[in-house]
Amino acid sequence: xxxxxxxxxxxxxxxxxxxxxxxxxxxxxxxxxxxxxxxxxxxxxxxxxxxxxxxxxxxxxxxxxxxxxxxxxxxxxxxxxxxxxxxxxxxxxxxxxxxxxxxxxxxxxxxxxxxxxxxxxxxxxxxxxxxxxxxxxxxxxxxxxxxxxxxxxxxxxxxxxxxxxxxxxxxxxxxxxxxxxxxxxxxxxxxxxxxxxxxxxxxxxxxxxxxxxxxxxxxxxxxxxxxxxxxxxxxxxxxxxxxxxxxxxxxxxxxxxxxxxxxxxxxxxxxxxxxxxxxxxxxxxxxxxxxxxxxxxxxxxxxxxxxxxxxxxxxxxxxxxxxxxxxxxxxxxxxxxxxxxxxxxxxxxxxxxxxxxxxxxxxxxxxxxxxxxx
Length: 374
Prior knowledge:
Blueprint: E1 21-22, E2 34-37, E3 42-47, E4 50-53, E5 72-75, E6 83-86, H1 101-107, H2 114-118, H3 127-134, E7 140-141, E8 154-155, H4 157-167, E9 173-179, E10 193-199, E11 201-203, E12 209-211, E13 216-219, H5 228-231, E14 235-238, H6 242-250, H7 258-265, E15 278-279, H8 282-287, E16 293-294, E17 306-311, E18 318-322, E19 331-336, E20 346-348, E21 354-358, E22 368-373
Parallel strand pairs: 1-2, 7-8, 9-10, 15-16
Antiparallel strand pairs: 2-3, 3-4, 5-6, 10-13, 11-12, 13-14, 17-22, 18-21, 19-22, 20-21
């Protein structure tokens, strides 16, 4: 029988009422409609657009009544904040509980002793506040010099930064490039600041240091910047262009040509100064007048110098022999060309270049040989 209107029981019981059994949920349900699902043996009610399982749903999914017993202790001394203690709890089905994978991973593998759990007892504010309370301020070291050098104190972040900033100084730090064509002053710098020259010129003003492209100038001490006269001692220049530096400092016009470079830097040797000296040839050595060349053993091979002449023309009784030895300190010998027998005659060292021979009878043509040594 179908009832097509509402039935008011006037607060009386509907005894022995059976909820209609169905193998699946009825179609087009209305708010409050119920049925018994014979597939999972569960009563469902249609509420807020969904079938709710009356077997697990309560008021908003909240447990409303807990009965003491079976390892459950209930302390209701404060009705507004009852305490439930469960000695053994086995959870077989929980609804309306959600957690992300990251949140579950946070709990995965965590173990804690009773003492460790007690650390969190009563935590109601920021964790840092709680930790501050657990760590006495006497353990915190705010001294930027870390002078205590303690194994039981913890340095604050500011103390560590202050200590590191004061300890790590003078490191080489590239600050940029400099166009030195206008002879700029040195910049204000800390020890270790370094600049590379992009255009040649001077740094430290018009009277500053000469710099070439690629040179690096580095602060050797903290300074406020300025001219060469004021802060030049706080800077040093590392020369990159060594060829240019060599040309500039030694007035060289060419270092690719060895002869030209050598000619520009050589210094002549003298009796009082070291330097470069040319070696004399044998002929130059025998002149005995050169003061700029050095004599080698080969140049001394003919010393004392010996010069040989052939004389006699079958008419002259006075014959001048020019030896050009540049001295009168010579020894002269005359002998016959035919048998090398020594001949006596008057010999006069007439000058530093001439020996004069006088004979009683004119020697025959080419009859005599004269040897002059000196």
